[in-house]
Amino acid sequence: EEEEKLKLKRRETLERRWRTTVKYVGGELAPTFVGTALAGVGLSTSASVVRGVGATPFLVGAGGAAVVGGVGLASALTLASVLPKYRARQSEKESAAAAAKAKAKEFA
């Protein structure tokens, strides 16, 4: 039994360390790494190559970004109109359940 407790304690310690490490890497280091990567891409891109490619890739990228943004906006607006109705129904159900519970206590 002592051995099981020790194993459990080791596992909890390992999980805690893992969570701390992941939180640090994701929260502190990731923005720095992303910024460094973007700077590297920007520094290695020459203006002549961009001019040679033309505007088509940029227009396609802008179109894709507009579609993704539009879908996100539509989703947010839909959820904003649906969630209050859903929450109101949930609240009504909870109120009805509480009232039924109170009545049941009266008769008990």
From TrEMBL:
Record-annotated membrane-spanning stretches: 21-43, 55-83
Alphabetic keyword roster: Membrane, Transmembrane, Transmembrane helix
Protein name from the UniProt record: Uncharacterized protein
